[in-house]
Amino acid sequence: MTFELTILGSSSAIPTSKRNLTAHVLNVHERFFLIDCGEGTQLQLRRNKIRFGKINHIFISHLHGDHIFGLFGLISTFNMLKRDTDLHIYSHQELERILTEHIQFFERNLAYKIVFHHIKPEKNELIYEDEKITVETIPLKHRVPTCGFLFKEKPHLKNIKKNVVEKYQIPISEIQKIKEGNNYLFHDKIIPNTELTIPAYKQRSYAYCTDTAYSEKIIPIISNVDILFHETTFANNFKKLAKETFHSTAEQAASIAKQANVTKLIIGHFSARYKNVEIILQQSKAVFENTFVAEDGEKYKVDLQRE
Amino acid sequence: MTFELTILGSSSAIPTSKRNLTAHVLNVHERFFLIDCGEGTQLQLRRNKIRFGKINHIFISHLHGDHIFGLFGLISTFNMLKRDTDLHIYSHQELERILTEHIQFFERNLAYKIVFHHIKPEKNELIYEDEKITVETIPLKHRVPTCGFLFKEKPHLKNIKKNVVEKYQIPISEIQKIKEGNNYLFHDKIIPNTELTIPAYKQRSYAYCTDTAYSEKIIPIISNVDILFHETTFANNFKKLAKETFHSTAEQAASIAKQANVTKLIIGHFSARYKNVEIILQQSKAVFENTFVAEDGEKYKVDLQRE
C-alpha cells in the first residue's frame, strides 16, 4: 500500500544542468499519477525506472511550456511502444486542441486512445476518483488559469483484532460492518466496536501547488496534508518580482504550510538564477521547520499510521 | 581554429536512461551549429556547457518528433533569456507553420527574430555560407523527406615561411597573393611559391547522415570527409527491418564509410532495444576499422593538418 512521491524535475521555466523541468509522479498503491510534464519527462521516467505502462493518468496544472512540452515526446513514445490502454489527461480544454493538432501531424495512427478531461482551474472540484483515492483541483493564482492537485486516499477500514472472530463467532457477513465501525450483538450483549477493532490507517494525502503567487485561499483545501509541494521560485528578497510574476518566495510557501498545518513541506520550482538553494531552504525553515528541498530523482514516502 | 563535434543525443526514436534524443553541435571556429534538436536538447546543451548565445544556426534533417521536439523548449528558453539576435533555422517548409503556431500560443512576444530557410531535402545544394565554412544538404532515403548536412571549411591560405618577407623585401600588398599561391618577382628573378610558403592547412569536414536507409548516392557528396556520422539503428541481423523502416545496419553504415574513404566513422541513433551496442560496433569495425560509438557528451576534434 505505497504512497510515494517522486520528483522528476525541480527547476522553474529554465532548466539547469542539475534540475529538469517540472514533473512529479505519485505512486498510490502501484498506480502512477503523472503531474505536469515538462520537457525531458520521458527521460526522467526512464532514469527513475518508472515503467511507462503504469502511467494512465496525467494532470496538467497550466498551459505554460515548461509544464507541458514533455507531452509530445511521451505521447509519441507510448505509441512506438505499442501502448493500447487509454491515457487520461486532465487539463484545460485548450490542451486538447493543441495535442490533437500535434498528433495529427506527428503520429500517423495513434494505437491508443487519449481521453481528455477538461478541468476548470478556478474551482475546487473533484476531478478523479477510484476505489483508492480522490483527486481535487486547487485553484491557484498565476498569470494564466492554473490549479494544483490534491491527492487523497479514501478512508481506510478499521482492522479486526486477532481472535475476536473466533471468540464471538462472528460470521463473514458481519465482518465488513464491523470494519466500518459498527458494534456487534453477541448473545443479546452489545460488543462495542472498540473491543473488536484496532483503529484504521490514516488517509494519506499530497497537495501539489505550482505555479502560484501567495494565496491564502488554498489553505482550507490543503489543511493537514502529509506532503505539500509549494513552489518557491524566489528567495525572500525577490518578493516584489514574485508578486509581479505570480510566483512565491520561501517565506510565503512556508507561511502557507504553517497555516495549513501540513506535516511536510517540499519546496521547488527554483529560478535558474540559484546555483545553490540553501538560502531558500533556510528562509523557509525559519517559518516552517519541516521543509525539504526538491531534488530531481528524490522520493518521499508516506508510511501507513494508525489514527 | 576549432573544428569539434559534440554528441548531445545518440538514441533513436525512443530515448533510454543513457542515451538522449538526437542532437549534435559542431563548433567551427567558435561558431556553434546545432544539428537536429530532439527533446531535452536544451538540457544537454547546459550539461555540456555550450552557451545558448553561441547558437545562431539550427539545421533540421526531417520532421519526425525525435529530431525536433526540443525546439519548442529551446525557443522558449532563448526568449526568457532575452535573446535579441536572429535565430536561423534550416528546415522543411512545413516546420515554419508548426513553429509559428506554437510560438503564437506559447510565447506572447518573441524578443528575437526566427529566420526560416526552407530547404529541399531531395537536392544536394549549398544552404549556408560564411567566410569560414559552407553547409550543403545530403539527400537521404527515409520514410519522410530527409537530408543530412555536409559542413566543410573553406580552403585555408598557405602560410608564409619565416624570414622570406625580409629576405625578398616583400611588401604587405603582395602577402595575400603569395598566400593564395602566386610566385613573387624579386629583382627580375621569379621566386617560386614553394620557396616562399609552407602548405596550407587541409579543409576539415563533417557529414551528418541520419535518418537513412543504405544509399550509395551519398558517397560522392561525402567522400573523404574527416568525420562521417552515419546512423546504425540496427545490428546486421535486422537488415530486413532496417529496409522496411528506412534505417541502416552496422555493415551498411561501414560500407558507406569505406566507399566514401572517410577518415573516421561515428555510429549512433541506436534502437532502444540495445542496452549494449558492442555488437554493432564490432560489425561496423569488421568493414571499416576506424569506427567509434556515439556517446552522449562525447567530443570529436579534428586537428589542423598541413596538406
- Major sheet details of chain A: 7 strands, mixed
What is the CATH third-level topology name of the largest domain in chain A?
Metallo-beta-lactamase, Chain A
Instruction: Please name the two chains that share the biggest interface, counting residues whose Cβ lies under 8 Å from a Cβ on the partner chain.
Output: A-B, 30 and 30 residues
Silhouette of chain A: globular
Strand order of the largest sheet of chain A: 6-5-4-3-2-1-18
Proportion of residues in helical segments of chain A: 25-40%
- Structural class of chain A comes to alpha/beta
Order of helices and strands of chain A: EEEHEHHEHEEEEEHHEEHEEHEHHEHEE
Mean pLDDT reading of chain A: 96
Q: Determine the N-to-C terminus distance of chain A.
A: 16 Å
Tally the structural domains of chain A: 2
CATH class (first level) name of the largest domain in chain A: Alpha Beta
> What's the CATH H-level homologous superfamily of the largest domain in chain A?
Ribonuclease Z/Hydroxyacylglutathione hydrolase-like
Q: How many β strands of chain A by DSSP?
A: 18
The number of helical elements of chain A comes to 11
Report the C-alpha radius of gyration of chain A, rounded: 22 Å
Which architecture of the largest domain in chain A per CATH? Answer: 4-Layer Sandwich
Low-confidence stretches of chain A: none
Notable features of this structure?
homodimer; 307 residues; alpha/beta; Metallo-beta-lactamase, Chain A; 2 domains; seven-stranded mixed β-sheet; 11 helices; 18 strands; globular
Give an overview of the whole structure.
The structure is a homodimer of 307-residue chains. Chain A is of the alpha/beta class and 307 residues long. Chain A folds into 2 domains: 3-156 and 201-301, 4-Layer Sandwich (Metallo-beta-lactamase, Chain A), CATH 3.60.15.10; 159-198, no CATH class. Chain A has helices spanning 41-47, 65-68, 70-80, 93-106, 164-167, 172-179, 193-196, 219-222, 239-245, 250-259, 278-285; strands at residues 3-9, 23-28, 31-35, 55-59, 87-91, 114-118, 126-129, 133-139, 147-153, 159-160, 184-186, 189-191, 197-198, 205-209, 227-231, 264-268, 291-293, 299-301. Chain A has a 7-stranded mixed beta sheet with strand order 6-5-4-3-2-1-18. In chain A, helix 8 (219-222) links the parallel strand 14 (205-209) and strand 15. The two termini of chain A are 16 Å apart. The mean pLDDT of chain A is 96. Chain A binds chain B through residues 13-17, 20-21, 39-40, 42-43, 46-47, 49, 63-66, 69-70, 72-73, 76-77, 80-81, 98, 101, 105-106, and chain B through 13-17, 20-21, 39-40, 42-43, 46-47, 49, 63-66, 69-70, 72-73, 76-77, 80-81, 98, 101, 105-106.
